[in-house]
From TrEMBL:
Molecular functions (GO terms): ABC-type transporter activity
Keywords assigned by UniProt, alphabetized: Antibiotic resistance, Cell membrane, Membrane, Transmembrane, Transmembrane helix, Transport
PANTHER family per record: NODULATION PROTEIN J
Entry GO terms, CC: ATP-binding cassette (ABC) transporter complex
Homology family: Belongs to the ABC-2 integral membrane protein family.
Keyword Thylakoid: no
BP-aspect Gene Ontology terms: response to antibiotic
Keyword Membrane attributed: yes
Major localization class: membrane
Transmembrane portions of the chain: 32-53, 65-86, 107-136, 142-164, 176-196, 229-249
Organism listed in the record: Nocardia coubleae
Protein name: Transport permease protein
Domain ABC transmembrane type-2: 32-257
Subcellular location: Cell membrane; Membrane
Amino acid sequence: MSTTTSNPLAGALFDSSVMLRRNFTHITRSPVTIFNAALMPVMMMLIFVYVFGDAFDVGENYIDYAVPGMLMLAISYGLSGTAVSVSSDMTKGVINRFKVMDVSRGAVLTGHVAASIVTNVIALTAVLGVGFALGFRSPASAVQWLGALGVLLATAFAAAWLTVALGMAAKTPEAAGMSVVPLLMLPFLSSAIVPAEKMGPGVRQFAEYQPFTPIIESVRGFLAGTPSGGHTVAAFAWCAGFAVIGYVWSRSTFSKRV
């Protein structure tokens, strides 16, 4: 696993690909991680559509309303595994082994980010597949589908970097798993399950102005064939902010700890 090459960029990309393969292999060998990342969002969608769906008046077929929110949940539920994996590398001496093997330091972080995004893509695919099986239909054009995918991938990228930073900062893997709980809870306090305007005072205002609501509404608009420029701009702005904070924080913590 050496990065010895005449091209530093090529060496870094090679190291990142090796770290991606390593991290994704670990994910596939962890039943709990697979359940949380791919199966839990599907179960949540089944519960909300079949158990609670008739209780929600959202002005349209509930499955059509719920799928964008469940896609956001699919991203959130895969984050705890990433945080625990990063923390385990930092606390169990794995990083020291990589240093001896002359692995690019940046590759250690980008490998976790890439593995998180791959896991998210699998979870998003599973949610969409089940959504179509349950009756979800979208009038969106190919370009609008690409817009929705772009927002989701930007969210997965930003959330991955923020999660890596939280995992780096945690003292133990257990603490790392707990550190992402707010990211798991925020979608439930957004417009993922019911429109924000149907919530009670206080909760409604929080739901309207928290970061996940414009992201979900942007995806919902694209999939409904009526994209919202305002929500999309806000979504990408939140994603850019989270990505920058996560990147700077994780690199700073990584430099201090190794």
